[in-house]
Amino acid sequence: MLQTQSKKENILEAATVFFSEKGFRDTSMGKIARGSGVADGTIFYHFKTKEELFLAVLEKFKDEVVKEFEEYFVEQDLKTAWP
Questions:
Q1: Domains along the chain?
Q2: CA-CA distance, 40 to 38, in Å (whole number)?
Q3: Measured between alpha carbons, how far is 16 from 12 in angstroms, rounded to an integer?
Q4: pTM above 0.90, yes or no
Q5: How many of the other CB atoms lie within 10 Å of CB of 12?
Q6: What would the pLDDT profile of 24-34 be if each residue is shown by its tens digit?
């Protein structure tokens, strides 16, 4: 956990780890709070429900995958443009 990250980013990072290791059902908001170094109430300030947090994790993952693909295709276009 980096000091420069916001509390919301820390929560998303911890939630990603817990959801991927324990699954949605076996991950509690309390575990995520402890893992991200915030109070339980802080999580609910940023995410009203565990479902909302889970969807935010999925959205962040999707955005990262799309970005990687875009960068890959730009790189491939540059490679084909210059013999």
A1: 7-81 (1.10.357.10)
A2: 7
A3: 6
A4: no
A5: 22
A6: 999 999 999 99
